[in-house]
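Sequence in, structure out. Go.
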Amino acid sequence: MAVYMPKGSKTYWVDFTYRGQRVRESAGTRKKTVARLYEDNRRSELEKARAGIRPETPEQRIRTVRAALKTYREAYRVNHREKSLADVDRSRKHLERLLGAALMPDLTESAIAQYMTTRKTEGVGNRTINMELETLSRAVGHPWKLLWPKLRRLEEPSGVGRALSVEEEQNLLRAAATNRSPVVLPVLKIALLTGLRLGEIRRLTWNRIDLSKRTLLVGQSKTKAGTGRMIPMHTELYRVFTEQAAYLARKLERPIEQSWYVFPFMNRRKPVDPTQPVTSVKTAWESVREAAGLSDFRFHDLRHTALTHLAEAGVPEETMKSIMGHMSRAMLERYSHIRMQAKRTAIDGLSLPDYSGQSGQDLNAHVKESPKKSSEKRIQ
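Output:
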C-alpha cells in the first residue's frame, strides 16, 4: 500500500518503507495524482537528508526568489566582509530584476537557461553570470549540481589578468595626473608601489601609517595571510603619503588625526568627512584608463604589475608572499607576469660551455671548415 484514502478521511495518505523505516502520513490533498507526487517528494527529501542536505519546509517551497535572497543576505552580512557583501548585492540586484517574483518550483533548468541567455544579451561576461547563479543556489539552499544537474556552468576565460608594460604604466600615471579627481593619482601610485588591493587602500587609516619608521600596516584584508602585514616605504611611497597628509590638513584646515582615513569621504572635489572612507573611485578610474587607452585593463591588474616588478627584480619568493599577502606559491605564480624584455635579458645570460678545448671563435671556424675538408678528401 502506498497511496490510499483511509475510511472517514477527506485526504489521501502515503504509506511506504524507506531503509527499514515505515513512513505513514497524510498528503494533505484530495487528489490521488497529487498524493503520488507528494510521496515522490517525500522519498526525495529522505534521500537528501541521508546525504546531509537539509529538507525544506512547505513555507520554503512556496517562497519567492526575492524573499530567499533577502533572508540569505541578512545571514551573510553577519560574518562576511564588506567587499563580499557588495558582491552578493550586485548579484542580487539582477536576480531580483529577472527572477524576483518566481517561486522555488519555478527555478527549473529552462528558467535558469533563459536567465543566462538574457544576461548574455545584456553584454555580461560568463564569469559574472556564473557568480550570480551561485548566489542564487546558496540562497535557495542547495548546490548547483542538485538544482540544475543537466545545466553546465558557462565557460569562463582562463586568463588571470596581465601586467602593464612600462609605456602603459607611464600613460596611466600621466592620465591620472591630469584627471579632475584628487584621489585617483595617489591611489594608483600606492597600488603600483605596494601591490595593495583597492579595498585595502580605501580602508587605510593614518594610525597604520608610520612616517617616522616609514612603514605601512595593512588592516583587514581579503585573506588571513594579508591581514596585518607590514610593508616598508621607500622614498617614492613616503612622498605619496606626506603629500596626501598635507593635502588633507590644508583642505580640512586642521592637522590630521590618527583615526582619519587616508582617503576620506568626499564630494566631487574635496574631502568632507575624514571619519568615513571614500566610497568609490570607479568613475575616476574608468576615465583615467580610457584616457590612457587601456579600456580592457582592470584596477586589480595593478597588483599583477607590482608583483611582476618584484619578480623581475629577483625578490625572493617568501619576501614577495609577505609583501603581497599571498598564502601559497600557486597563487603567487598566478599573479606574476614576467615581461618579454625581462625574459630576453635572462635568456641572453644563457650560454653553452666550451666542450672542444678551443675558444668559441676557433670552434665556430672548425664548424664552418669541416664540410669543405671532408669534400676535398672525397675528391682525392
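Check: Residues 166-341 form a domain with the hpI Integrase; Chain A fold (CATH 1.10.443.10). The chain has a mean pLDDT of 81.
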